[in-house]
Structures are given as C-alpha cells and as structure tokens.
Amino acid sequence: MFSKLPFPTQKKVILVSFIAIPLLLLFTFAYYPALELFRLSFMKWNGVSAHKEWVGFANYAEVFSNPELFGVFRHNFAYFAIGIVQNIVALFFAVLLNTKLRGRNGFRLLLFLPYILNGVAVAYLFGYVYDTTNGSLNYLLGSLGFDQLAQTSWLGNKDYVNYTLASVGLWRFMGFNMVIYLGALQSIPSDLYEAASIDGASSWQQFTRITLPNIYKIIELNLFLTVTGALEVFDLPFVLTKGGPAGASETFVMKIIETAFQFNNYGLASAMSVVLLLIVVIVLSIQRYILTKGDD
C-alpha cells in the first residue's frame, strides 16, 4: 500500500518517520524522566508506596540547609583541580606526539589504553597501588629512600584522599583528552607553521599564536567534559573508599544514591539531582561566558 502512494508523499512519510522515531525515543527516555524527576522533587515518597505527599520546596530547603548534603561539593574541588592538570598534560603529549617522533603511534596507543579500561577495574587496580602496607606506590617510595612518605595511607588520610582519587582519573582520562587535542592539531594546516618558521617565529610563539587560537574550541570542549566529570564523579570513591575516611571522600552523587536507596527518600534524592543539574548548568554557563569573552 505504501508503494502505491505518490513519490512526494512517500518521501514525506519517510522523512517524518526518521524525525518522529528519534524524537519519540528522546522524549521517552530523556525528557519524560527529567520531568518526572522534577515533579518528584516536590514530593515525599519512599519509592514503594502509591501515596506521594506534596511538600513543596521543603526538599530543596533541606538540600541547601543541611551541610551533610550540600557541603560535600567541596570534595569535588580536587577533581576539578586535577582535571585542569590533566588537560595541560594531555595538550603537552598531543603537541609532542603530533611531531615526527619515532614510534609516536605506539606512544599514542599506550596513553589511550587506560581510557578503554572498565572504571571499576581501574578502581580495584589502584586499590593495590595505594595500599598502605603492600602497595606498589609505597614500595617504590621506600626503595627511593622516602621512608616517611612510604608509610602514608593515601586513601585513609582525609586531607588528600580526594586528590589521590582524582589522580586516578588523570591516569585514566588523560589519553582520551590527548586524542581529542591530537585530532584538532592535525586539522591545522602545516603551511601556517612553515610561514611562521620562515618569519623567524620560535616554537613557543608558534604554539601561542597559531596552535592555541586554532584549538580554542576544543579546549572549551575538554573543559566542559572536565567540569561535568568533576561534579558528577561517583565510581572511584564508591569502589575505593565508600566515601571514607569519615565521609571525607563522599561526593554529591554518592549522597544522592545513599538518600534514595539506603534511606528510601526519593523525593529528597530527586531534589538533590535537580540541584546538581542546575549547578552544572550554572558552572558551564560561567565557563562559557569567560571563554567566549576571552575569544572575543
């Protein structure tokens, strides 16, 4: 029956189908859950009963007034700081491996491999690395003569446990950022560098006047990924420390999971999720404004 329709009608039906089906899936699995999450944030609900009690903005007031909930955001700063270092290291290796370095493809592969590993497997791997008594890191430090550092409990000291966890993310995601930077560098015409060399520009001048302006949008993209990852980190502290010691490595996402599935307070957990979404939007908007202003 479809084949009997005029060709223009068949074309319109196909185009509408290709648009309607993805939109239907998007609304079903993205927009509807988001709207339901927003609705539940005004409710008091244990996740089981059919009754949901309307509490208005009480859940949001609880989020902002309870330091045990909102205060854990300060733990995410370590992931943001290490994420900035991660981008700098990734850009360094991208520039280095974009040259005619011998064996550069092998180095690219080695640096990218950690990214394809499972996050839980990486967490367990570094659990052995950071072990206080039998860990390879403390053994290496002891072999080098740093006996005091060799006794450090990297995952048990609340002052730098978050930086320890964030360093695992640096090892895992640096190669991914490097590949993104590398793709951007390879899109820059080599004629620009040749002309700059003829004019007597140094390597640093070529980097600041040619490389950085041409990959500015890619830097913005990687910073976007860094900020969102720092605010939404969950797997590493959950597997390695369970939020310890004494809650020093708990993240906001861990608090959301705990509130929903341990304390059965799905209304408060929904409000926390909405707050996290708003914070991500605000932070990224500020980042976008700063970077766009600098670009102008």
Automatic annotation (TrEMBL):
GO terms for cellular component: plasma membrane. It is found in: Cell membrane. The keyword Transport applies. It is a multi-pass membrane protein. The chain crosses the membrane at residues 12-34, 77-97, 109-130, 163-184, 266-290. Its main location: membrane. The keyword Ribosomal protein does not apply. Keywords: Cell membrane, Membrane, Transmembrane, Transmembrane helix, Transport. InterPro entries: ABC_transporter_permease, MetI-like, MetI-like_sf. Pfam families: BPD_transp_1. Residues 76-287 form the ABC transmembrane type-1 domain. One of its GO terms (biological process) is transmembrane transport. Belongs to the binding-protein-dependent transport system permease family. This is ABC transporter permease. It comes from Paenibacillus montaniterrae. The lineage of its organism: Bacteria, Bacillati, Bacillota, Bacilli, Bacillales.
